[in-house]
Design a protein that fits this description.
11 strands, 5 helices, two-stranded antiparallel sheet, alpha/beta, globular, seven-stranded mixed beta sheet
Amino acid sequence: MQEDSYVKYRVVRTRPGWPWPVKTLHDSIINITPPRGAPLKGPKPDSIHITAVNIPTVYTAVLETVPKLHAAPPVPVPEYTPPTSRAPPEEGYDLIVHVGVAGPGPLRAERLAHKTGYALPDYERQSPPLIIGAKGNLRGFGLPRYGEEFGDELFTAVDVDSFVGDLTTGPNPLPLEPSNDAGRFVCDFTYYCSLAESRIAKRETPVLFIHCPPIGQPMSTPEVADGVRRIISNVCGKL
């Protein structure tokens, strides 16, 4: 945590038609929820400042934008970043969370992302980068930026099972489950890029991806926004 208890958080929307859960969180401040039984770190709850960013569901937009989120200070892309009351912190963000849409059901917290295997075109009908190497012609990540030091799967450093356990029990359980399949589409692509860029930046910023259902299947927009808010609060309480 930063000494002034100020945490920046990025939400990435990755599908047209699903702006409101993240937009309602933009430029808001929420309190960190410490793990059950753990005391607050100070006389007042630590606070989280949330900045929402809309990255299009386009492979090139991901490659342009995600590395800039991991810079210190971060470099906002104007066309994707709405106005905010606070400038990006000079030392970089403390937590980056990406949010995308999956199928009907609960929220899904993704444990890992995949380097290759991306066959589907994006919303501009463009294919992901073609990688030519010892394993044949694949689409995804490769040299020069994402070499062999980055495995076929990258795992988040966030303890997914811990916060899922915290938030799915108690008096107000959240519809939430862990997942090992981020889909090998732009969401998965975004997640791998962000996990890799966290290492490249040598700051090891925690990165997480949350999949939410389409509106009303079964969660409403306020329910999704509240769920994302609770996840971030819980995760930040353990940083």
